[in-house]
Amino acid sequence: MKDIKIHVNDLSLYYGEKKALKEISMQIPANKVTALIGPSGCGKSTFLRCINRMNDLIPSVRITGEMLVEGIDIYDKNVDVVNIRKKIGMVFQKSNPFPKSIYENIAYGPKINGLKDKTQLDEIVEVSLRQAAIWDEVKDRLGDSALGLSGGQQQRLCIARTLAVSPDIILMDEPASALDPISTSKIEELVHQLKEQYTIIIVTHNMQQAARTSDHTAFFYMGELIEMGKTNTIFTKPLQKQTEDYITGRFG
Amino acid sequence: MDKVNIELENQFFSSEKKGSDIKGKFFVGVTQLAVFIIIAVLFIILGIIVYQGRAKFSWEFISSFPTNGMTEGGILPALIGTFILVIVMSIAAVPFGTITAIYLTEYASENSKFAAAVRFSVRTLAVVPSIIFGLFGLGFFIQFLGAGVDTAFNGGELRWGQPNILWASLTMSLLTLPVIIVSVEEALKTIPRELREASLALGATKWQTIKQVVLPGSVSGIMTGTILAVSRGAGEVAPILFTGAAYYLATLPGSLSDQFMNLGYHIYIMSTQSSDVEKTMPIQFATTLVLLLLTLSLNLVAVVIRSRIRRRAK
Amino acid sequence: MNSQFPVNPSFTKESLKKQFRLSEFLAEKIISSVAFLSIAIIFLIFIFVFKESLPLFSFGSDAKAKTEIQGTAKPESYGGTTTEELKPESYGSEPVSNADLKPETYGSDPVSTEDLKPETYGDVKAETPETTATETPEAVSENNEGADKTWSTFFTTEWVPVSENPRFGLIGLLIGTLKVTVIAMLIAGPLAILAALYTSCFASKRAKEIIKPIIEMLAAFPSVVIGFFALMVLATFFQSIFGYESRLNAFIGGVAMALAAIPIIYTISEDALSAVPKTFTEASLALGASKWQTAFFVTLPAATPGIFAALLLGVGRVFGETMIALMATGNAALLSSNPFESVRTFAATIGSEMAETVFGETHYSVLFFIGSLLFIFSFALNAVAEFYVKGKLIKKFQGK
């Protein structure tokens, strides 16, 4: 029980009438990397956005079932969505730094939490950037616009920005899909280091990436969770025919 | 007509060059002619006003008072009056319009009846004839608010219950409100969803996100709206006819409860009620030139900023 | 807080409990209330413009009854200062209430108030003229005459507001307004729509990028500038061509107003034409229709509702245009079908005469009444353009 961070019980999601996620039940272990794979449109990203309630932003979305994070149902009426998102960070597919300086990007989260102390902010910025393995590249130009960074650097900056609010869980939505191979490997390496401290859930359509980075893998297809297990098992001897077909490249 | 068409063809005509179809050529020609007429008329107006107005147009004209019963001298008080008018107007209209735009883009849910009513009201404001704003200013600001203030605080002494620059500016701000709302709304919509999501995912609240991410990104939109509103407010005359504009004042307005002179009103008065319309013709043209330069250049600036915003959105 | 780093605060019911954030709450409330102001303004405009024309509707003793009712009812809702109390004070120089004013202004003619009243003001049936007549016979009959007289003159053609026996014939003004509107729309409509058609269907992308902003620049011309141009240049120019008598007339006004209406009609039509789905035009082109055939027989009909809306808003612009009407139409309420005669429009009447009226007198109220009519008309035009046209468009493109 202690090792399981998130329990999902019978979670379904509707876009208006359309059922986009069908009775998903899964358990996501703590301090491990869990990969969500599947063909595009299978619901893996939608599911990821359920975990920090980003889907709340879409008015037509309705969710049933339970999403227990450390035993607390985050869809409970008494739970504050803003506080949820402070605990569950998110890195998006397209790097989306604010059009501010590098420093301000990192300090954004702590600042909106009311932190004003300059030395503490400086410290958080440095530690976060170091954790995201980008400190050496940007330490001399913290005041420059974040938009001047390369795509890979921007994405690592976004990871650092997420780390700065010290979340428990980090959700990554195809974080390397728009990056070149070198940047991708840097991100993957980073994911590997971060799992010591964080529970990471990563959506990817790149099977090699899932195999390289994750401890557990869940395969989604048509809004359903087909199979979940240790990454090794999923990639070597999947239980379901559909999983095998997908992994061997027969569709998707 | 033929000549016109040929000229236009060289200028604008790009495709459909096969042109064996005479009927088609004729139809397209007619539409080209319409474009040509409109643009030609526009430049003719501009040209004549520049040509007729240039004689009197000088720094001295802009920087001096009218003299000799407004048959000589400059337009300084009208220029300053217009200036104060648009400033007070912007102070009232810009926050109001910006906040309404924020409501419409950030807070209103898609199917909200209230938001639909706000949208409809804004569009209605945009089509209400400007003279109606003048009537409203008279009935509401002067007779109701102003007279009310006088009774309550001035012991009935007439101060605010009469036309003045404050009421004229507020009346004008209602008229220009839709201009600002539309511009700001457009700018807010160009802020990418990803940025809002990034902020929210970091645990920012909605208002924090708006304040820190959305608003800073739409400063240029707010500027465009303000400039367009100023351009509009500087040129409108009907709303201030009976809410504060004065025929002639020997001094500049010293407080918001004073009346003021106004460029557009000055043109109207000089061209229709001057003692010697013939003699003051150069003054009238020069004043018109000043007003036209003012509104057109402001508009041009707004168009440039706006096209930059649009390009960024792509 | 998150001051120490790295801190991994655990998930607890407390730390995740729903928080009340005052700034968040206030921001939302303030923003929605400001947005509400837009709606309120529309109501206020109607109420206050209409309110000033109210004396026209207070037939006879109803006027008194009404002021009495308001006098007692208002202090509660308005917290002490009622407008009725304010007016006499602020205009201390003439301590005359509206009801008192009228008998002085108007003569005699006790006609059909009884017939009129139930139709227009059914809500005040309680105060029938018969009952009040017994109380104050003279005043009532005189009051009746005043208001009624004003009403009966509305449907005449003479506009003589300042005289011993003022007449407020709206028909003449209506005809003047319509004349100018028709002339302006006959010029602006075709020109603007054809130009929009060229811009959206035939022009190259580069030409479009030049043409559109230039034509829209016309919208930045203040109406007083257009009016001035019409007065100084157009009037002389057209007189030398056509040789008519009155220099300023409906035609000149119409031409000038067309200039004001063109950018509106053009912009909205162009949007409507550009919004026609590509699939429509591509289908037509694929069937072998040429570009112009597609434009005229596919794109144009598909955009009809939008173009209709554009024309409606153009009409609204011309109908309420004040400065151009003031400066270029000659301002004489003549009844004639000749477009080269001077006319007087509703808006110009308000613009030119409001400054000369005395607060509270009938002339003042009549001008506000005309204002109410203009407002209702523009409101209705906009509502039709908005709802009817939108519905049609949706039907057309989605087949619902």
UniProtKB/TrEMBL annotation, chain A:
Is Heme among the key words of this record? Answer: no
Name under which the protein is recorded: Phosphate ABC transporter ATP-binding protein
Q: Which UniProt keywords apply?
A: ATP-binding, Cell membrane, Membrane, Nucleotide-binding, Phosphate transport, Translocase, Transport
**One Gene Ontology term, aspect cellular component:** plasma membrane
Q: Where is the ABC transporter domain?
A: 6-247
Q: Which residues form a coiled coil?
A: none
**From which source organism is this entry?**
Flavobacterium restrictum
Give TM segment ranges. Answer: none
UniProtKB/TrEMBL annotation, chain B:
* InterPro entries found in the cross-reference section: MetI-like, MetI-like_sf, Phosphate_PstA
Under which name does UniProt file this protein?
Phosphate transport system permease protein PstA
- Tell me one GO molecular function of this protein: phosphate transmembrane transporter activity
Stretches that traverse the bilayer: 26-51, 75-104, 125-145, 165-184, 237-256, 283-305
The answer on whether this UniProt entry bears the keyword Hydrolase reads no
Source organism phylogeny:
Bacteria, Pseudomonadati, Bacteroidota, Flavobacteriia, Flavobacteriales
Asked if the record carries the keyword Ion transport, the reply is: no
UniProt record similarity statement: Belongs to the binding-protein-dependent transport system permease family. CysTW subfamily.
GO BP, sorted A to Z = phosphate ion transmembrane transport
Ranges for domain ABC transmembrane type-1 come to: 79-302
> Where found, per UniProt?
Cell membrane
Q: What is its main location?
A: membrane
TrEMBL record, chain C:
Q: Where the protein is mainly located, per its record?
A: membrane
InterPro entries documented for this protein: MetI-like, MetI-like_sf, Phosphate_PstC
Residue ranges constituting the ABC transmembrane type-1 domain according to the UniProt record: 174-385
Q: Does the keyword Aminoacyl-tRNA synthetase apply?
A: no
Task: Report the superkingdom from the record.
Answer: Bacteria
Report the GO terms under cellular component. plasma membrane
Record keywords: Transmembrane included?
Answer: yes
Q: Where in the cell is it found?
A: Cell membrane
* Gene3D superfamilies cross-referenced by the UniProt entry: MetI-like
Q: Name one GO molecular function term.
A: phosphate transmembrane transporter activity
Q: Name one Pfam family in it.
A: BPD_transp_1
Question: What name does the UniProt record give this protein?
Answer: Phosphate transport system permease protein
Q: What is the native source organism of this protein? A: Flavobacterium restrictum
